[in-house]
Design goal:
This protein is an alpha+beta fold. It has helices spanning 2-22, 28-55, 201-204, and strands at residues 67-74, 83-89, 104-111, 117-127, 140-146, 149-157, 160-171, 176-188, 194-200. It folds into two domains: 2-55; 58-216. A five-stranded antiparallel β-sheet has the order 5-6-7-8-9. It has a four-stranded antiparallel β-sheet with strand order 1-2-3-4, with no helix packed on it.
């Protein structure tokens, strides 16, 4: 009776083991496969996060070989988003003669529907070259981003110092920025004589940011 019970228990254990195997009991191979799958999923997630991070970094929009000059954060469209403006020199920065060198590019980076930065507009005519400000140095003074407004300030000269401020406003109906106001001035550092003029759309018409070239404006003021 005692031996029969032992045999019955042994048969039961064998049957349970077979059933567990058929139902997918974990083996060493299973553990290896699942570990590999988990590693692949983690790597894919990290790659996705790295791509999203790069797309959210304003410097990622600087072309290869170009030199980043400035980054300004702000609300470019007036929609309350964290946008960015970048200024870069298209090519390695080199010291050349005064007045020589490539002009800088200004790019306006806004948020798309998913919240990631995108290049919305560029201009390669507003900011002159690094050596184009005369003995006063780099003519790029600053960029300012306010709610739906962009201001680019340029200055230079020697005894006579000049400045040009260009202001753009975002228009939701056009989906772009239009030149709204230009303020230009000149002053004599020895005599303190000054002259300033202001231009509006009535003077220069309807000009989008990407199409604006300061050379298209009337000549700036000068001191005789």
């Amino acid at each position: 009776m005692h031996m029969s019970r032992k045999i019955a228990m042994l048969l039961f254990a064998l049957l349970v083991g077979c059933d567990a195997h058929e139902r997918g009991a974990v083996t060493a191979d299973d553990v290896t496969v699942r570990a590999d799958a988990s590693h692949m999923q983690t790597s894919a997630t990290q790659a996705s996060l790295a791509t999203a991070s790069a797309a959210d970094d304003p410097s990622a929009f600087v072309p290869a070989g170009a030199t980043l000059v400035d980054t300004v954060l702000g609300d470019l469209t007036g929609l309350g988003t964290a946008d960015a403006l970048i200024v870069f020199t298209p090519g390695a920065s080199e010291q050349g003669r005064l007045g020589d060198g490539p002009s800088r590019t200004v790019a306006l980076l806004t948020r798309d529907a998913s919240g990631r930065l995108q290049n919305a507009a560029e201009n390669a005519s507003i900011v002159p070259c690094e050596r184009c400000g005369g003995i006063a140095g780099d003519p790029y003074a600053y960029a300012r981003v306010e709610s739906g407004f962009v201001t680019l300030a340029i200055s230079g000269g020697s005894r006579q110092r000049w400045f040009h401020d260009y202001m753009f406003r975002y228009g939701p109906e056009s989906g772009t920025w239009k030149l709204e106001r230009v303020v230009r001035g000149v002053s004599d550092s020895q005599t303190d004589e000054q002259l300033q003029v202001e231009l509006t759309a009535a003077d220069f018409g309807d000009i989008a940011f990407a199409d604006f070239d300061p050379a298209s404006l009337p000549p700036p003021p000068t001191l005789d």
